[in-house]
Amino acid sequence: GKCERASAVTCGCPGTRSCPRGVPARLSPAITVLPLALAGCDSGFGQATARHLDSLGFRVFASVLDPRGPGAQELQRSCSARLTLLRMDLTKPEDIKSVLQHIQAHTNGTGLWGLVNNAGFNDIIADAELSPLGNFRTCMEVNFFGSLELTKGLLPLLRSAGGRIVTVSSPAGEQPHGTQGCGVGSPTGMHQLCSTAGSGMLPPLPVGTPMNVDFWKLQKEQLVARLPRELLQAYGEDYVEEINRQFIQFMKVAVEDLSAVVNSITDGLLAANPAVRYYPGQGLGLMYFIHRYLPYFVRDLFLKGLFINPKLPRALRPEHKDTKKP
């Protein structure tokens, strides 16, 4: 909701939406006396946003998996002393409790102006039948239950300051594809939860943050090695190879500029009249239009053409069916 204690607005900050004067209408700079909390700042959107908000003068509590890791250390070096790194693994309730206690103890009665839920996890590209159940559980723990626990714990501080919640989610929550087996349940849950709470949502397009190709190849190899022989024969190892190759290729050509997402998060926190949802990234609005308003077969063709070569699992290929005929 809007903050009654800082209702004055100012114009001139870079952002994604415009006031009648042609630039975004922003809350008074005095709002920077209130701290912000960001989850998932080791790299990518979270790291870039934490750095940007620090440069605007905010006191930032940035959670990372490992404060001694290269991403966390880079963030610390590039920011002022106002930024505090906090270790948090969203699958560990004790980590969440420790972060909540630290933030509560260091807000000095001011409350919290904003929470950015950015932490996300998905380490496998495969159909649901191929994906280990443990991966589903981890995705839900990090992307849904962990974020929910953190949000619920910070709500009293957010309420006292009239603050805001911005959640970065995946388009897979509303535009699922067959090879995103593990990655669709948690963003769908977050989409619906945020819809009930009215908090801002950002389902960004893929952005070319540094990607470890060797990591994804190793994940694919481990998946193939774990699959039961009958299941691997039904899908075909070439199918698993192809969907992972397409994913890596898709990420290699993704947008490298993080500014659209960073500006949208900033706008959600600081705009006098923030949008309920932001769609940062060229063409993302078209994707949602196609998904919401066009027939299913059009949506299916669009997703197949955008995300993956429509290679069929072995058991569904015409030549395989022909060999099974008497």
TrEMBL record:
Regions annotated as coiled coil: none
Top-level division of the source organism's lineage: Eukaryota
Pfam families per record: adh_short
Record keywords, A-Z: Lipid metabolism
GO biological process, one term: glucocorticoid metabolic process
InterPro entries: NAD(P)-bd_dom_sf, SDR_fam
GO molecular function annotation: 11-beta-hydroxysteroid dehydrogenase (NAD+) activity
PANTHER family: 11-BETA-HYDROXYSTEROID DEHYDROGENASE TYPE 2 (PTHR43313:SF2), SHORT-CHAIN DEHYDROGENASE/REDUCTASE FAMILY 9C (PTHR43313)
Family: Belongs to the short-chain dehydrogenases/reductases (SDR) family.
Name by which UniProt lists this protein: Hydroxysteroid 11-beta dehydrogenase 2
